[in-house]
Specification:
By secondary structure, the chain is of the alpha+beta class. The protein contains 23 helices and 13 strands. It has helices at residues 9-20, 30-36, 52-58, 107-112, 135-141, 150-156, 159-171, 177-185, 195-206, 216-219, 223-226, 228-231, 247-256, 262-270, 275-278, 292-306, 311-323, 332-342, 344-359, 366-385, 399-405, 410-426, 433-444; strands spanning 25-28, 45-48, 62-66, 71-76, 79-85, 87-89, 101-103, 121-124, 128-131, 143-144, 174-175, 280-281, 287-288. It has a seven-stranded mixed β-sheet with strand order 3-4-5-2-1-8-9. A hairpin with a 2-residue loop joins strand 4 (71-76) and strand 5. The model has no long low-confidence stretch (mean pLDDT 94).
C-alpha cells in the first residue's frame, strides 16, 4: 500500500501557488484513498484555507462552481480542478445538503464533516498524509467506517448509506458494525434522496467487482424502500432441475457472470424479477414460472422509469429482459429469425445474457449448453460476414421496387416485404431481385387490388 503519492504537475502547481501565498493546500478525499490503494484517481480535488475570492485571484481562469459552499474550479491546460475552502457544515434540513456552510481555518474540522474515514484523508507533498480519524488503519483493515458519529453522518446526508454499500462493493471492504447498524436505523431517510442519485449509486454497486454486495441493501432494510420488487425475490425457491439457487441467489450470480456494463448488469438484475408473481408448482413438486418474462418486463419498465433511466437504456434493457428466454436453435433459420427480431447488436448482447443466465443455473447442464451457445454465435457471425439475408435491409427487393411493380399503398408494401423476408429466411436461394419480383407479380398483385 503506497504512502507516497504521485501528483499531476498541474495539481502540484496549484498547491505550490497557494502555499507560496501563505495558504495551506492539500489534495483530499477519493484521490488520496485511491492513490494509497495503488489505483489511478479519476479526479484530483484540493482543499485549502484560502477563501474562494482569494483563490480566484490567484489563477488566470476559474469557474464559480459553488461559491456558496466554498468551491472554485481552476482550469489548467483544459483540465478542471475543484478547490474548496475548509468548511464546517450547518444543519441538513433535507438529509442531503447543508442549509449553510461556515468557513474555517482548521483542516481537521473540514475533514471531520466527511462521510468515511477512508475519504477523510488529505495529502501535501511536503507534509505528507494527514489522517485524523484512522483512515489509513481502515484502509489496511479493508473497512468502511463513518467519520466519528455514524448516525449523525447519515442523518446529514442519507445518500451516504448507499455510498457505504457502493464503496464496500467497489473496494471489497467490510462495513464496520456501528456504521452498518446506523444504516439500518436510518433506512427510511433514503426516501428523501432523488431517484437519480439512488440510480447512480445502485449502478456503481452493480458494475463493481463485487456486485453481490448489492444484498447489503436487503440486510440493512434499504431494499424495500428503493427496489421492493427485488425484495420480493428474496428466498423464493426454484425447485426445478435447471436450477440450484433460489431466485435472488440466481439473479446475483447472473449479475456477477456478465461483463461490468451498466445495461447488461441491470438486465441480469431484472430478468427474473417477475418470478415471485408467476410461480406455480405442478403435481410432481416441480416449480414453474410461466409468463415471467412478460411480468419481468412490465416490472422492469416501472423500475427504470421510477429511477429515471434514459430512454435508450430503458429500451435496450426491456428488450433483453423480454427475450432472455428466447429459444434460438443452432441452425440458420432460427438464428436469422432472432437476428430479424433483435437486430445485430441486440442479438449478440442477448447471447451474453443467455450465457450469464446459464452460468447461474444448475452446473451439471452448463458445459453442453455453453458449447451450443458458442456454435450459435459462430454461425451468426458467418451469416453476418457472408451478408446472408436476415433483415429487410438485406432483402434483394425494397419498397421502391414494389412501387415500380405496381404496389401503391405504404401499408401493403410493409406487409409484402415482411412476407418476402419470411420466404427468404426459409429458402435463402430466393433472395434475388428476379425471383422476388416474380413472386410479387404472381402472388401479391391480386392481394392488394
Amino acid at each position: 500500500m503506497k504512502k507516497e503519492i504521485s501528483i499531476p504537475k498541474d495539481v502540484q502547481y496549484i498547491i505550490e501557488r497557494l502555499n507560496n501565498e501563505g495558504y495551506e493546500a492539500y489534495v483530499v478525499g477519493g484521490c488520496v484513498r485511491d492513490s494509497i490503494l495503488g489505483k489511478e484517481p479519476k479526479d484530483w480535488d484540493i482543499t485549502t484555507n484560502s477563501l474562494p475570492h482569494t483563490t480566484k485571484a490567484l489563477f488566470d481562469k476559474t469557474i464559480d462552481t459553488g461559491l456558496k459552499h466554498g468551491t472554485v474550479t481552476v482550469v489548467l491546460n483544459d483540465e478542471n480542478y475543484e478547490i474548496t475552502t475548509y468548511r464546517i457544515d450547518g444543519k441538513y434540513s433535507d438529509n442531503r445538503r447543508p442549509d449553510k456552510v461556515e468557513f474555517t481555518t482548521s483542516l481537521k474540522d473540514d475533514l471531520s464533516r466527511r462521510d468515511f474515514t477512508i475519504n477523510a484523508l488529505a495529502y501535501n507533498p511536503v507534509l505528507g498524509i494527514m489522517d485524523f480519524f484512522g483512515g489509513i488503519e481502515d484502509l489496511n483493515k479493508k473497512v468502511i467506517r463513518a467519520v466519528r458519529n455514524a448516525d449523525k453522518r447519515f442523518k446529514e446526508d442519507a445518500l451516504r448509506m448507499l455510498r457505504a454499500i457502493r464503496f464496500s462493493a467497489q473496494l471489497d471492504f467490510q462495513i464496520e458494525s456501528e456504521t452498518l447498524k446506523a444504516i439500518s436505523e436510518n433506512k427510511e431517510l433514503i426516501n428523501n434522496i432523488s431517484p437519480e442519485r439512488i440510480r447512480d449509486e445502485l449502478t456503481k454497486t452493480l458494475v463493481s467487482p463485487s456486485p453481490h454486495k448489492f444484498l447489503l441493501l436487503h440486510d440493512t432494510g434499504l431494499l424495500k424502500f428503493i427496489l421492493p420488487e427485488f425484495e420480493s425475490c428474496i428466498g423464493v425457491q426454484q425447485n426445478n432441475p435447471y436450477h440450484m439457487y433460489n431466485v435472488c441467489e440466481h439473479t446475483i450470480n447472473a449479475v456477477s457472470s456478465i461483463e461490468d456494463d451498466k445495461v447488461l448488469r441491470w438486465t441480469m438484475l431484472l430478468h427474473d424479477i417477475g418470478k415471485p408473481l408467476t410461480k406455480s408448482t405442478d403435481s410432481s413438486g416441480i416449480d414453474h414460472f410461466y409468463g415471467h418474462q412478460k411480468v419481468s418486463c412490465d416490472l422492469s419498465f416501472n423500475i427504470l422509469k421510477r429511477l429515471r433511466f434514459d430512454n435508450k437504456s430503458i429500451d435496450t434493457i426491456l428488450k433483453l429482459v423480454e427475450h432472455h428466454d428466447m429459444t434460438i436453435d443452432c441452425d440458420s433459420k432460427s438464428i436469422k429469425s432472432a437476428l430479424r427480431i433483435l437486430g445485430k447488436e441486440l442479438f449478440f448482447m442477448l447471447l451474453k445474457v443467455k450465457e450469464a443466465d446459464m452460468r447461474a443455473q444448475n452446473i451439471i447442464y452448463l458445459e453442453p449448453r455453453l458449447d451450443e451457445l458458442a456454435k450459435i454465435k459462430r454461425l451468426a457471425e458467418e451469416i453476418i460476414n457472408e451478408k446472408q439475408c436476415y433483415s429487410l435491409d438485406t432483402l434483394a427487393i425494397n419498397g421502391n421496387h414494389l412501387i415500380e411493380i405496381g404496389i401503391k399503398h405504404g401499408k401493403d408494401i410493409g406487409i409484402i416485404l415482411n412476407k418476402l423476408l419470411d420466404m427468404v429466411i426459409e429458402s435463402p436461394e430466393l433472395n434475388t431481385y428476379s425471383k422476388l419480383s416474380q413472386i410479387v407479380r404472381s402472388k401479391f398483385i391480386d392481394f392488394v387490388k
